[in-house]
Specification:
2 domains, 278 residues, mainly alpha, 11 helices
């Protein structure tokens, strides 16, 4: 999860969109992501190496793009940057395709259970229950087609299996998918009218590195600022609220960028500390 979403107490709308697009209607999103389920089998060493390369390349390009945006780059400048990095984007796409192929050859667990919060509304409970059911149904379709795939299948055969999987899933569960989309919109509208809890002081572990302390402190400050602004506009016109939040993101672009950098520094520091302790 990005630092921006981590610090936004009102990330519920984005969460719903992610649940809908990434977890429920992923049949419509193209290739199956190698990280669709947290309980999938661990990738083979070669696939793990490809995944690490993909993540590093994607992070590098994303970092460059965020820097340009924080510096006020125009649309033309961003387009020129994309053209200059066309080869890197092409290589990234090929890595994503390789990961998708490797993921498609792994069976999917049919054990997904709905995780319903105690205070969930009836709409949210139904949404989460249906989501889990759809993910299990998709896994069953995938596993059946995978069993029928010949040993040593070519890339074309794997791609054809993925396409067939999406088609079968969309046809058999079209009504449920449509209902999920409608419920997501309802939940997003409901969450937009709910106040966001203002966080208390940051909780910093006793053994936290200086980098982690700085990250948690800054994340808490940004979360507080965003929650206060959101609550200030809770009864305002949605367009006015959206404009205010957009202005907040622009005004805090530098701090959000710094937060991402602190997160990276904290991760590197923790990894180094763990390596020294081994």
């Amino acid at each position: 999860m990005s630092a921006d979403c981590n610090i936004s107490g009102g990330c519920w709308i984005g969460l719903l969109a992610g649940m809908l697009m990434g977890g429920v209607v992923f049949a419509q999103a193209g290739d199956i992501s190698p990280q669709v389920s947290g309980s999938t089998a661990a990738p083979a060493p070669s696939a793990l190496s490809t995944l690490q390369t993909y993540q590093q390349e994607r992070q590098t390009l994303a970092q460059q793009q965020r820097t340009l945006i924080s510096q006020g780059a125009t649309r033309q400048q961003l387009q020129a940057w994309r053209q200059q990095n066309a080869a890197q984007f092409q290589a990234l796409q090929q890595l994503a395709q390789s990961l998708s192929q490797a993921s498609a050859l792994q069976p999917m667990p049919v054990t997904r259970q709905a995780n319903i919060p105690p205070n969930a509304s009836a709409t949210l409970a139904d949404f989460l229950t249906t989501q889990a059911s759809l993910e299990n149904a998709r896994a069953q379709i995938h596993n059946q087609l995978l069993q029928a795939l010949p040993s040593g299948a070519t890339q074309e055969q794997v791609s054809a299996m993925q396409q067939q999987e999406r088609q079968i899933f969309q046809q058999q569960y079209a009504a449920d998918l449509q209902l999920q989309a409608q419920q997501a919109q309802t939940l997003a509208a409901e969450s937009a009218s709910q106040p966001v809890p203002v966080p208390g002081p940051p909780v910093i572990p006793p053994n936290a590195t200086p980098q982690l302390q700085a990250y948690l402190t800054e994340r808490n400050a940004l979360a507080t600022s965003r929650a206060q602004l959101w609550n200030q506009y809770i009864t305002a016109d949605p367009a006015a609220r959206q404009a205010a939040m957009q202005q907040w993101r622009q005004q805090n672009a530098g701090r959000l960028q710094q937060l991402r950098e602190l997160l990276q520094e904290s991760s590197n520091s923790t990894a180094t500390q763990e390596g020294e302790n081994q």
